[in-house]
Write a structure and sequence with these properties.
Order of helices and strands: HEHEEHEHEHEEH
Helix content: 25-40%
Radius of gyration: 18 Å
Structural class: alpha/beta
Number of helices: 6
Strand order of the largest sheet: 3-2-1-4-5-7-6
CATH topology: Rossmann fold
Oligomer: single chain
Shape: globular
Distance between the termini: 46 Å
Strand content: 15-25%
C-alpha cells in the first residue's frame, strides 16, 4: 500500500464506513484513487459520491452511485445547484494553494452536516524540504502556507469545528463540524516568538 492509500485508510476511511446514506463531495479526481475508495463506501452505505475535476474523468467509473462534473471547484453557482443541500464529507485535493483552499473551504462549509468531515489534503511541507525525499520548492512553500492558513481559520473558529492533522506522506487535515453556526473570518495568529520577552527568555535559558 502506498503512502497516499495508507493515509486515507488510517486517517479517514474507517470514520466514513460508520455513516449511513453517506453523501460525499470530492474535489480532485486525477487517477481516481480516492474516488474508487469513496465510491466503494457510497455503494456500501447506500450513498452518493459527487466528484469535480477540470479534466474529463467521466470514463473512470460507470456507477449509479457516482456523478462527475467536469468543471473548476470554484464554479460555485453550477456546483451548488447539482449537489445535495447537506453533505457528510467534503474532500479537497485540487489546487494546493492557501488562498484557494481558504476560498473553497468558506464557500462549501455550510453544506456540511453537523458531525461531518471537511478533509484537506497536502498540508505538510516536510517531505518537500531540501534534501528530503520529495525535495520540491513549490510544494514545500504551498503546503506550509496552507497549513498556516488552516491554523489561522481555526484560530477564530475553534468553537465551530474540531481540527486534527495527519503527517503521513504529504499530510492531511480533518475538520469535524460541531454546530450549525456561521464561520468567522480567519484571524491571523500573532506569535510572540520574535518578541523581546522571548528574546530575553532564550538568553537566560542558555
Amino acid at each position: 500500500m502506498n503512502d497516499y492509500l495508507y493515509k486515507l485508510e488510517q486517517f479517514l476511511i474507517e470514520d466514513l464506513k460508520k455513516i449511513e446514506n453517506i453523501n460525499i463531495l470530492e474535489f480532485g479526481v486525477r487517477k481516481g484513487v480516492s474516488t474508487k475508495l469513496f465510491l466503494e463506501i457510497a455503494k456500501l452505505k447506500n450513498g452518493r459520491l459527487y466528484s469535480v475535476d477540470i479534466e474529463d474523468c467521466s470514463n473512470l467509473f460507470n456507477d449509479k452511485n457516482w456523478k462527475f462534473f467536469k468543471t473548476r471547484d470554484d464554479n460555485f453557482e453550477y456546483i451548488k445547484k447539482n449537489i445535495p443541500e447537506k453533505l457528510d464529507v467534503i474532500y479537497l485535493d485540487s489546487v494546493h494553494e492557501a488562498k484557494h483552499v481558504e476560498k473553497i473551504f468558506y464557500n462549501y462549509y455550510n453544506f456540511l452536516k453537523v458531525g461531518g468531515y471537511f478533509i484537506i489534503d497536502d498540508i505538510s511541507h516536510l517531505p518537500y524540504l531540501k534534501n528530503n525525499l520529495r525535495n520540491n520548492f513549490f510544494n514545500e512553500i504551498n503546503n506550509q502556507e496552507t497549513f498556516k492558513k488552516i491554523l489561522d481559520i481555526y484560530n477564530s473558529n475553534y468553537n465551530n469545528f474540531d481540527l486534527i492533522f495527519s503527517f503521513v506522506s504529504s499530510g492531511m487535515a480533518k475538520i469535524i463540524k460541531k454546530k450549525n453556526s456561521p464561520l468567522n473570518l480567519n484571524k491571523k495568529i500573532i506569535s510572540r516568538e520574535n518578541s523581546i520577552k522571548n528574546f530575553l527568555r532564550v538568553i537566560f535559558k542558555n
